[in-house]
Design brief:
alpha/beta; Rossmann fold; 6-stranded mixed sheet; 36% helix; 19% strand
Amino acid sequence: MASAQHLAGAPRVIHLAPVDIPSDATRRLLSELGYVEGRNIRLEFRNASGNVDALPALAQELVREGGIDVIIAISTPAALAAYRATQTIPIVAFTAVDPVASGLANSLARPGRNVTGVAVFSEETTVKRVELMREVVPRAVRLGTVTTKVTSGAQSLAPVLETGRKLGFTVEAINIDDPADLAKALSPEVLAGFDALVFVPDVILNAHMAEVIKMVGLSNKPAIFPSPMAASCRTGLIFPTLPVTWSRSLIAF
């Protein structure tokens, strides 16, 4: 009884994401900070099952429930949904692309709102990935980039589109609205129309990275990813000419 009463007074933390994400890393990092689920913290995982458009309603529902001490928001859409639902509950955002431009913070040095976290500034590294692809595959013409509703906006795609065109690529986005359509969207028949692939940071694709790597491997197309998860999923796959590489740029705000 005493233990239950003690936990009832523990902070309630909501992990909000557009898709179901493995929770081990979150639990491990919190544990390293002294917060152990079931002992001195109540941790709840909520997601929109891949439907980014459902995040605002989900965030509003959670805020109406009350009793939330902190919201951990994974992705810019999740962070924006949480912020629009509450300007008082602390929000820790991860992979928020340019929090200032998206309206999550007044500035990186002084956010000035109830949102803090880690932002991914991938523009420079995305440009480098496109330049690297041109160096390694000099005769490539059709460059594909894969997006979901998390990354289909101009802010995410601009570095690939602009740099690719400057370097002589014809750039086309492969849009995946539903993670269930991954196998179809990345089938060998679809990817046969491309000479190379450059990926941008995307939390939904990261959650399905093993399947993404498998499909790209079947197509036998060179690809560059922004996440080290790609390397960990690469076992048994051989990419022609260009190995799977990754890079990222993170900054706290």
